[in-house]
Design goal:
The complex is a heterodimer of chains A (308) and B (487).
Chain A: H1 5-34, H2 52-58, H3 61-93, H4 111-123, H5 126-136, H6 143-150, H7 167-192, H8 196-204, H9 209-237, H10 239-248, H11 262-272, H12 276-300
Chain B: H1 6-10, H2 19-36, E1 73-79, H3 86-98, E2 103-109, H4 112-121, E3 128-130, H5 139-144, H6 152-156, H7 175-178, E4 189-201, H8 202-207, H9 216-228, E5 232-234, H10 245-256, H11 258-265, H12 275-289, H13 302-310, E6 314-320, H14 323-326, E7 337-340, E8 356-365, H15 373-383, H16 386-396, E9 399-400, H17 413-425, E10 429-430, H18 434-437, H19 439-455, H20 461-477
Parallel strand pairs in B: 1-2, 1-3, 5-6, 8-10
Antiparallel strand pairs in B: 3-8, 4-6, 4-7, 4-8, 4-9
Helix pairs in contact in B: 3-15, 3-16, 10-11, 10-12, 19-20
The chains are: A mainly alpha (308), B alpha/beta (487).
Amino acid sequence: MQHGKYRFIVGFLTIPLGLYAIFVIWPFIQSIYYSFTDWTGLSPDFKMVGFDNYTRMLHDDIFWKSLQHSLLFALLVPLVTIGLALFFSFMINVGGRRRKGGPAISGVRGSSFYKIVYFFPQVLSIAIVALLFAFAYNPDTGAINSLLRGIGLDSVQPLFLGDPNLALWCVMAVLVWSTVGFFVVLFSAGMASIPADLYEAALLDGAGRATTFFRITLPLLWDTVQSGWVYMGILALGAESFAVVQIMTTGPGGPDYSTTVLVLYVYQKAFRDGQAAYATTIGVALLVVTLLFAAIVMKLGRRERLEY
Amino acid sequence: MGSTSGEHHESTTTGGVGRRDLIKRSAALGLVSVPTMSFLSACASSGGGGSDDKPKTGKKTAKNPLGADETGQMEFVLFDGGLGKEYAEDAVKIYQTNFPKAKTKFFPTQKIGTVLQPRFNQGNPPDLIDNSGADQMDMGGLVGKKQLTDLTPLLDAPSYDDPNKKVRDTLRPGIVEMGQFDGSPVWILYYAYNVYGVWYSQKALDSLDEKYPETWDEMLKVCAKAKKKGMAGWTYAGKYPYYIPFSLYPMIGKVGGRDVLDAIDNLEPNAWKHPAVKVCLEAYYELYQKGYILKGTPGLDHIQSQTAWAKGEALFLPNGSWVENESAKVIPADFDLAVSAPSGIDSSDKLPFGTIWASGGEPFIVPAQAKNPGGGMEQLRIMLSEESSKNFTAKVKSLSAFNGGTTGIDLTPGLKSGAAALEKAGDNVLNPRLQDWYVQLEKEKIGVACLGEMMAGRLTPAETIKKIQGFADETAKDSSVKHYKHQ
């Protein structure tokens, strides 16, 4: 077995690693290379300009605003989404009232129905979700303001996406709404594999719902929560936040730059303003932010693993 | 969810390769193998292979004045948007008939940039492009990088209908200048002709017993009357406030004269501080202050605002002539759509009432590296014939760059009103250029961050002017942006 082991392993790994190198690592390297040029993205000729793009970026107010919003997305959206998802999945799987003759541990009444309901938004593409909410937020005929009028709150008619103080929150709410279901299902699967006798023992000792959650469920689910956190953060920094901001907001990115995010700015610079090199520079900044985010979450989340 | 840790189990199997080791080593292998691939040769931007092929030209004859390749291929990529693709398809058919041995390739798409940007980078673009829509490629960048063919030969060629008349002399005012960036070459031919202004329902105005107001006092009076009837005076595309300039800029031009707009376009210092700008912005702000803007407008997109306006919730809408086609489904049959040049302030304005913004739309370009540039230009020459122009106007309810071509076809109300407005304007046609010279400045900075904020009541006119001037100065100083001047 020892003999020729490496050759054996390498034989298996060349194709996946090769694909990974060509389609993941190579584009990274290319982007970093382009960030040192003045490439417009419209013609094949360009020259090296050193760190010009980077100095320009550091003095670019819109870049800093976008960074600020992206960071807010990466911190708040996972926090709210995962918090809600943990709560929902706990209620669905464990939080129910004990019923006579039933199992010791069960979810609230109708929990299997809720599970489907929560998962439903995940089936819709993010573009459709964003459009639906753009209609719902319409201050004139949208569902939310119509509802407010319907219950007599004629004086409370916010502009939602048209108000710089509200727009970012409106966009974040859409992301939370559309992704929470996925994590409910993910955490439910995790909770299902926690042995019921642990809960039974806790119940015998007189533990309430909150204690059960914080002392049993959360610690045993920690690995799942952590990877969910990283995954959600990357979504909130990347594709999903681009889609909702691009489709829903004023401008897009407004009003008055209140919703612009790094990915949107990359897109606008590359494909609207014909400044592909500067766009890749911002892309590199985004890469750094994403890596830092993942590293910090991993570091902060390191705990002793429990085996069961 | 039994999370078994790799370290625990496998590091104990002595002599075996631990999972971690394996991953580490293979990752290192992957990283090492990357730089060995030739670094630059595979870059996305290094193509240029197509540039070896010299463009093919046919013999120049009276029937083929631009030297289209009679046996080769002519490739035409069209933006398939609000104007559809039928008008271009019909024109391609004529090309095919005129050059039976040639091959034509016609490709309509909404994603112009996505489809064509890689082809420009490879040096292999098509022969004719309608570079329009949300995904259009930056014109300044294309011109700056010498990616386009000068269309002067087309303009000097005999027109399709009359060999004694040059193509240049059959076009509407402003079309040729709009295609120039700096100096005399003409890089773009705008095929559609848009009339910008204040759009309204003549029926609604009649029901108020009013005619279109020529001065701002009259405007406020009409709005007050409308408000009493439960109708807002104005609405606009709140989420895309760069629709406001469609009536605001020509108003500034009417009040202060053509030079004010030219100075603004040239990014001259303090151009926005001109008194005419101030008085016009204050006039618009008054609409907000007096509550004449439809409630909720800042949260509406262009379609939503046009729908509210078509339903009669608001009287006036700043827009362009495409609105008739775009909102055809929601405009009631008896709406009697009309457009007017913007109201001025009073009789002391520099230019008379009727001064209007009209300019080309649908920019057509022939790439510098096209295989058959003569074919691309010949296709444009065919499209600028009276027959093709009439076909275009009849099919898409828009005027074309061809001056005329409206007789003998049924014009829709909006189109008729647009043609009448152009007639009334005569020489007083303005053509502000910010939206094609400095897209980011016009849309994102002036539009969304300044005018949009002012009309939502979050900035005063004085603050707005200061902020816009700041953005304009910033753009003037930005070396990554190409700068242009009115000739």
